[in-house]
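Can you give me the bound-state structure? Components:
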Amino acid sequence: SQQGEEDPQALSIQEGENATMNCSYKTSINNLQWYRQNSGRGLVHLILIRSNEREKHSGRLRVTLDTSKKSSSLLITASRAADTASYFCATDGGSGNTGKLIFGQGTTLQVKP
Amino acid sequence: NAGVMQNPRHLVRRRGQEARLRCSPMKGHSHVYWYRQLPEEGLKFMVYLQKENIIDESGMPKERFSAEFPKEGPSILRIQQVVRGDSAAYFCASSPLISSPRDGYTFGSGTRLTVV
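Here's the bound-state model for the whole set.
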């Protein structure tokens, strides 16, 4: 299996509900990032959490990182229809210096109005 | 600030033709990364370039693929003698620093290559 695997693969919720996506990885990391991709578009950086951080917030986003379990979660609170997109986690694989991100397969989130 | 610009947005090529994908990094960014995304999959790293230098091409197929980032002009990803399996979305990202940037990487909107 690959570095940075997301779970679940697909998630469908009602507007206003919270959405939680999980990511597992295999190697050591310097940081882990979450990106959003709207259908047919490029990736938008959401949040970066460093290996010495456990939790980070940005607006309605909350990211946690557990380096002992090599896992991270992305929580989107009070979801909106506009949050419908694919969400990817990406790690630097411990390299830190090459810009070589290792992406997971992504979680497809559908928020129903 | 125009962001990372990629062109064309869509490219159709017949098998055996050449495909040239262009990426202009954000102003002030001197590091460019190319990724490929197959349908229903995540992005896969291909190559990392600085001006006039290939830093890491560990993700590039050994044959038919090449990349450059000249002193002047955009970065070019070139695919010779395309095959149907090359059909994918190709994304470019840029950053100003060699180490992990505080705010993540800036991606372009991608070029969707279709080989017919």
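A couple of observations. Chain A touches chain B at residues 2, 4, 30-31, 33, 35, 40-48, 88, 90, 92, 96-106 (CB under 8 Å). DSSP finds no helices and eleven strands in chain A.
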